[in-house]
Amino acid sequence: MSVASRVRSALPPRFAEPAGGRPRVAQPHVRPPLWTVHRTLWALVALGGAGIVAAWFLAGAQRFWVNWLMWLVFMVCLALGALFLVALQHMTGARWSVPLRRTAERIAALTPWLVPVAAIALFSLPVVFSWTQPDAASITPLVLKEHWLNRPFFIIRLAVCLGLWVLSYVVLVRGSVRQDVTKDPSLTVRLRRFSPVFMILLALTITDFAFDWVSALEASWYSDIFGVYLFAGAVTTAIAATLLAVMHLQRRGRLPGVTGDHVYNLGGLLFGFTIFWAYIAFSQYLLQWYADLPAEVFWYVQRTSGPMGLVFVLLGVGHFFVPFLALMSRADKKSPTRLKWVAIWVIFMEFVDVFWLISPIQGGGIRLGWPEVSFAAFFVAAGLLVIRRALSLGEDMPTGDPFLAAGLDFHLR
């Protein structure tokens, strides 16, 4: 049987072609009324948006912008983590992940939306960034960084990062979707050649973003591996989101040929990057604790004392020990129910991580109230609407990829 025949036989009826070659669309199976979910998400966007506007007038500018930055950083982590998974699949040439690549590509649909969210975030510069305050000129570490931390260069760096991310999204994702129509195998070669270039660009831009938008909130502090720390959380979150989306599509019969072995490998990848995140997090803490330099340890003192100390403990236990122990055995990674809840937990803990990184600049302990709920409702619902729309467009698997059939034949030994 030819590769094309094997792929067509694995696809659901709505992708099938009649003898005449013209595609036909089969009647969809009876499904739950998805419009209710759609309307619920739009209602949450409206309510969250109203709450965000109210937060601007009632909660103060600082609290407003801290919440906006937290969701910007979380969106960047999820979108870039998904693009990393797409490029990793191309670069390694792994067969098992080919049927799952389109799911990661659809999560990466958040990438273009980073542009307006980041553009709005520029208005937070005079409010929450320490290097923009009037007394910055009298603080020696900030004076030494003024050639890097100044508004024109800051905006230029952001524009370059956003431009490279959107360009990479167009090349990696739009190119893959175009291949579904053209069936051109040379596109696979071109995407494989571009992927190492993207990895270099990702390493540089996510490091710059981590320095500019997180550590520069308190610009006297620095960490050489902070970019790696944010990268580790981004990839872990993207794997968890991809895992959830794959299982969602599986339940709806939209990924025929994708088996528990494929999902098991995703669980193994999540397990591995959970360990990687813990290694980087502990390394950063250990180096600064051992050196005990005043210019470094004040940042950790803020985040390990008082109420924030509880968040620090939750982060260590929840972001590492819970998923590590939950996915340790082979049987655990074969359980769809366990994988689903672990994936949800990992995504939640990544936001707790972002909260722990950014929120302490407000002082006064943990701030959780209706402004935080409003921001969460707006950004979660809006993000789900973007991903749901991406899930409704095009094929659910990269049907033009010449290695799809091999990927569908994957089985663990």
Molecular structure report:
- The protein is mainly alpha-helical and 413 residues long.
- It has one domain (34-402).
- Helices cover 70% and strands 0% of the residues.
- The chain is built from 16 helices and no strands.
- The longest helix is centred in the N-terminal third of the chain and has 32 residues, at 61-92.
Task: Provide the number of structural domains.
Answer: 1
User: What does the largest sheet look like?
Assistant: none
Helical percent range? over 70%
Number of strands: 0
Low-confidence stretches: 12-30
Strand content: under 5%
Number of contiguous helices: 16
End-to-end Cα distance: 24 Å
SSE sequence, one letter per element: HHHHHHHHHHHHHHHH
Q: Rough shape?
A: globular
Mean pLDDT: 89
Rg, nearest Å: 22 Å
Structural class: mainly alpha
Nutshell version of this structure?
The chain is mainly α and 413 residues long.
Descriptive tags:
single chain; 413 residues; mainly alpha; 16 helices
Topology diagram in text:
Layout: H1 3-10, H2 34-58, H3 61-92, H4 98-107, H5 114-121, H6 125-128, H7 140-144, H8 151-182, H9 186-213, H10 226-251, H11 260-291, H12 294-304, H13 307-326, H14 336-358, H15 370-391, H16 404-408
Helix pairs in contact: 2-15, 3-4, 3-5, 3-8, 3-9, 3-10, 3-14, 3-15, 4-10, 8-9, 9-10, 10-11, 10-14, 11-13, 13-14
